[in-house]
Each structure stands twice: as structure tokens, then as C-alpha cells.
Amino acid sequence: MFYGVNDKILDYNSILEKCGVGKDSAQVIVKNFINLEEFYNDAEIVSIYNYCLTNINDPEILYQIIKLTDAHKTEETLTILLSMVQTPIPNNKNQDVYINLKTICIKAIANYKDSASLSVLLDCLNNKHEHYKIRLACADALGRIGDKYAVRPLLDVVEDEEEKSIYLKESATFALGLIGDTSVIDPLITILEAKHSFLGKFSFLKEKIIEALGKMNFNNRNILVALKNSLMDSSPMVRINAIEAIMNSQSEDAISLIRPCLNDENNDVKKNALIAIYNLSGRDILDEVISLPVYSEFLKAEAQAIIDEYEVDNDDGQ
Question: What gap in Å lies between CA 214 and CA 244, rounded to an integer?
Fold first, then answer.
């Protein structure tokens, strides 16, 4: 059948045949689709891609076509992509391929940054029967779109102690940080400081909560208090994340809060504390660490390494 685009006639079936659909590998077919841009204008390319998305069944080809549509975003393509996300995955041996297809579809939707996508993405996020990789992609997409309407559903995921996927909680927390809505500050702090929650087992989630809080408005004193408390967490990575967040806070108390970590039991924490204070105050902290016996030999060596790498040029120029 023939279809008209901009007063030109396109024979989609002929185009697909010339691109090798049904006979060549996905790699060859996609290369042929890319070559079409030499012969058709943007509107025609979009029309061809949309036809492919609704008429080709091979998930590997569809995967590549979705990636190609990213350079030609239209409302019609977005509608098709949203419909694909809502289409159930076939219950067969190729499930992983279809999971990957839905995931790339959601990533493409996120690039539109269109709030009209929220309802579909939220339905998918909240569907606990959906594969966790797809739900992860939805959480990430909601964060990248940045609409505050998604804040409460994302926070519900983080707060849900019955949610089995800790990775989804982490992704939802990261998304909240991207959105940056200050209404989540107190709930996130409550989760972070809970004494008898699942957080004791999952330090990665603590790290993501600290990252999210670090993106928030530091005029909120509660954030700084929560980060200070996190400097004493049992996980070295949580302590390191808290150091970085405090360093970026521009708080006048940042150096005094980070300074005790120079004598942390973990070398990586010590190193990150030294780098943070150096970034905030300059060379004086390096000379102090090298000269005073209260600091470990490890930290002295790190201080000297920073001098050798970053301070030599400054010394030569004086």
C-alpha cells in the first residue's frame, strides 16, 4: 500500500524490502535505514520509522529503530513509544530481548521530557509484576523528565519496605534527587536515620539518599545534620558520600564537620576527607597533615602526592 508524505508517495513495503527486512541481519538492516537519510527529508524519515515501529515484529530491529528515532522526535513517535511500553511482553524464550526493547523504549521516552508520558511511566513503575529492569528504567525516566507530579509515587517506592527490589529503591531515590523537590527532604532524612529499617543491610540505598539530599537546598539545616550523622555510619562509602555532599554544600561549617574524618579508620575515607578540605581551603591542610604526628603515614603520603601533582606549578610560579 502507498502512503503520502509532503505530497510525495512512499511505498513503505518497498522501502523495508530494500533495507533487507526479513532477509538480512539487524545490523545490516539498521545500516540501510541510516542510509535512507540521504534520500528522504526529516518528515519522510519520521514516517518511515513510525511505520517500522508499528509494523515490524522483530525486537532486535525495533530496538535499533527506536535509537534512530531519537534524532527525530515527534508527538506521533512518542505516542507509538508509549503504546509499546504498555504492550505486554510475550511469554516465550525471547523475554530478555523484549525486556531490553521496553527498556530502550522508556529511555527514548525520557529524552522527550514530556509530562504527557507520566501516567504510562507511573503505571509501569507501580506494577510489581513488571520486570525490575523495566521499572528501573521508568524511575530513571521520571527523574530525567523532572515533573514534580512524580515525586510522591517515587517516594512511595523508596518508603515501601515490602518492595523487593533494592535497586528500584536506589533508582527512585536518584530520580528524586534529579527532580530536586524539597518536599522529600524530611521523608528521605527519616528513612536515612531510621534505627530499625531495611537500611542497615543496604548501604547502597543510604548512598543514594545522601546523593539526593546533596542535590537539595542546603538552606535546610536538617540536611546538614543528617549528613553529619552519616559521617559516623558503619559503611565507608556512606561516609565518603556524606563528605562529598558536605563539601558541595557551601556551608561555613563544612571544614569543621569533615575534619574528624582525617583520622577515620578507613584509608579511603581519610583520603576523601583530605581532598575535600583541600578543595575548600587550599594547601594549608596538606602542610598540616605532613607536619603533625596526629595524622597517619598513609595520609601524609596522600598529602605529599597532592602537593607533587597540583602544587608544584604554583610554587614555580611564585
Answer: 8
